[in-house]
Amino acid sequence: MADLSPSEILLSRDQIQKRIAEMAQDIRRDFPDDLHLIAVLKGAFIFLSDLVRHMDGQVSLDFMAVSSYAKATVSSGEVRLLKDLDTTLEGRNVVIVEDIVDTGLTLTYLQDILRARNPKSLRTACLLSKPSRRKVDVKIEYIGFTIEDRFVVGYGLDYAEQYRSLPHIAVLGT
Ligand code: IMP
Ligand code: MG
Question: Could you give the maximum distance between any two Cα atoms of the chain, in Å?
Fold first, then answer.
């Protein structure tokens, strides 16, 4: 079992749902026709599922998996592709859907490999951003919430594979 557990609630279920509805509208407004969302497993799976259900019209989905930190709460900076996409991105309006951007290393890696596949456009939506932790300057067009440098769990985010199922975002503490 994990030696740390969720302490205070940082973002409630209602706050998250309200913000995601706004983000879905923003993305749909920018791409009213063709739209292809790529979620980064595992953390973004709940965010993606709520995001698409707040969105009108047609949207296609795909998933990618990259290596995570295992049990550590700090980034090693090493990114490895564990699961690739099922379809081509050629000519599509692609939005990467990420749970959280911390150092920015994972997202930079993803943007680089996806851009090389010639999408018509490539943007990023993340639920959470910790700008004070950035090691690389990475562009994010849609940000749900900007948070301080604290390790958070819930709403898809884990610590040692636990707490992903929480409906809110909580700070991990002792
Ligand atoms: P980055 O490459 O340092 O930006 O890290 C991005 C990935 O680290 C995220 O997609 C998460 O999987 C994980 N991560 C970063 N911060 C947190 C956190 O506070 N809680 C849970 N996972 C995190
Ligand atoms: Mg992630």
Answer: 48
* Ligand 1 site, residue 108, Cβ cutoff 6 A: no
Strand partners, 152: 171
Residue with CA nearest ligand 1 atom 22: 157
Q: In the structure encoding, which two tokens stand for residue 151, read together?
A: 């390790």
**Of 34, 50, 84, 102, which residue is the catalytic one?**
102
Cα 80 → chain centroid: 16
Supply 24's token pair: 């879905």
CA–CA distance, 69 with 76 (Å, rounded to integer): 7
Per-residue pLDDT at 1: 52
Angle at 133 between CA 36 and CA 15, to 5 degrees: 60
pLDDT for 77 equals 61
Residue 140 C-alpha to ligand 2 middle, in angstroms? 14
Cβ neighbors of 44 (< 8 A, separation 6 or more) are 97, 98, 99, 127, 156
* pTM across the whole model: 0.93
Residue in 33, 35, 38 with CA at minimum distance from that of residue 48: 38
Count of H helices and E strands in the chain? 3, 9
Does 102 qualify as catalytic in the annotation?
yes
Q: pLDDT of 67-112, one tens digit each?
A: 855 545 555 566 788 999 999 999 999 999 999 999 999 999 999 9
CA–CA separation, 91 and 141 (whole Å):
19
